[in-house]
Amino acid sequence: MNLMKKILSLMVWGLVILIGVVPAWAITADEILDEVEARTAESETQKAIAKMILVDSKGREEVREVIMYAKDEGEDVISIIVRFLSPADVKNVTLLSLEGGESMYLYMPAYKKVRRIASSEKSEKFMGTDFTYDELGGSYSREDYDSTLIEETEEIYKLELIPRDEESSYSKLLMEVDKEKFYFRRIEFYDKDGNLWKVMEILEIEEEEDGTITVNKIDLTDLKENHKTIVEMEHIERDIPLPDNFFSVRTIQRPEL
């Protein structure tokens, strides 16, 4: 075998080795996120009653009831209102998030005033829960993250999501997506030092006739503080009539929504 044949032979074997060790995914991370979004049950407007269970490091539980309104503003932008109905110490405290969290306001009935949430505060926890203001108003769309498919099993796709916002509290997220129904089963949140900080798990879903998914129960655990928040959806109404100016600072100051 002359020198040229030896070189060609080595190149061929090199390609064989590369093909053997580098996964050839049949689907991309962006396509997976698009499908997750497509499988999410949609409505122009929504009203929901939910129960929030806060569990502290000693296992003590505090149960809160909330009412939530949401409106699809188009282009994956959602405005929401979240109001506590009980217990008495948080009753009528209300959050307004406009256009996917671009502007956020908190109404505190004890002071009869509305406070705008500054950008620097959006990474803080909302009213003692394990959700930050950003997490209540945002989503996991590919517009906000650089995504990579890093693992595939018989049941799940595992994605690595790197936040595009440099002010994000997280260095990365690891998301496990159900391969059959395309909803995220679990998300791990890592802090700026690369340490696992929070874990979100979907505990209960409902599959609609059209194949879309409604999430009925979520568990978000803060591993650093040994604290968790469980959200259980109790009643959902879709495509309800709402006034054009419903999502406003004036609305959240009303005694009744």
Structural class: alpha+beta
Helix percentage range: 10-25%
> So what's the CATH class?
Mainly Beta
**Which second-level CATH architecture applies?**
Clam
* H/E topology pattern: HHEEEEEEHEEEEEEEH
Query: Could you tell me the number of beta strands?
Result: 13
Percent range for β-strand residues: 35-45%
* Gross morphology: globular
Radius of gyration: 22 Å
CATH superfamily: Lipoprotein localisation LolA/LolB/LppX
- Cross-sheet strand order for the largest sheet: 6-5-4-3-2-1-13-12-11-10-9-8-7
Q: Mean pLDDT across all residues, rounded?
A: 88
Description:
The protein has 257 residues and is α+β, with helices and mostly antiparallel strands. It has one domain (28-252): outer membrane lipoprotein receptor (LolB), chain A (Clam). The protein contains four helices and 13 strands. The chain has a 13-stranded antiparallel sheet with strand order 6-5-4-3-2-1-13-12-11-10-9-8-7. A hairpin with a 2-residue loop joins strand 2 and strand 3 (77-86). The chain is globular, with a radius of gyration of 22 Å.
